[in-house]
Amino acid sequence: MDDLFELRLKEMALYVIETGCTVRDAANVFGVSKSTVHKDLTKTLKDYYPSLCGPVEEVLIKNMILFIILVMLIYHYIS
């Protein structure tokens, strides 16, 4: 991969760790698709910056749990 890709990958990972943002937010900030962010952070990151995988995974899991809770609350409210 080229240097710009590696730089974007590292910056994206650090941004997610520092801000706790969602995949959608990171996609908007970095001008790429949500699919690209998700693939880069869950598959590609381990090949280039394995030390960032744990903290990134924690943020992604936290955001997924919050989303599930939100969906459950909405479902409970409209039921």
Summarize, please.
This protein is an all-alpha fold and 79 residues long.
Structure keywords:
84% helix; elongated; single chain; 79 residues; 4 helices; mainly alpha
**Helical proportion, percent range:** over 70%
Radius of gyration: 14 Å
The biggest beta sheet is recorded as: none
Question: What's the number of helices?
Answer: 4
**Number of DSSP strand runs:** 0
- Low-confidence regions: none
Q: How would you classify the helix and strand content by structural class?
A: mainly alpha
The chain-level mean pLDDT equals 96
Which oligomerization state do the chains in this entry correspond to?
single chain
Would you list the SSEs in sequence order as H and E? HHHH
Distance between the termini: 49 Å
Instruction: Name the shape in a single word.
Output: elongated
Beta-strand residue fraction: under 5%
Descriptive overview:
The structure is a single chain. The protein is mainly alpha-helical and 79 residues long. Helix content is 84%, strand content 0%. α1 (3-19) crosses α3 (34-48). The longest helix has 26 residues, at 53-78. The protein is elongated. The mean pLDDT is 96.
Helices and strands in order, then pairings?
Layout: H1 3-19, H2 23-30, H3 34-48, H4 53-78
Helix pairs in contact: 1-3, 1-4, 2-3
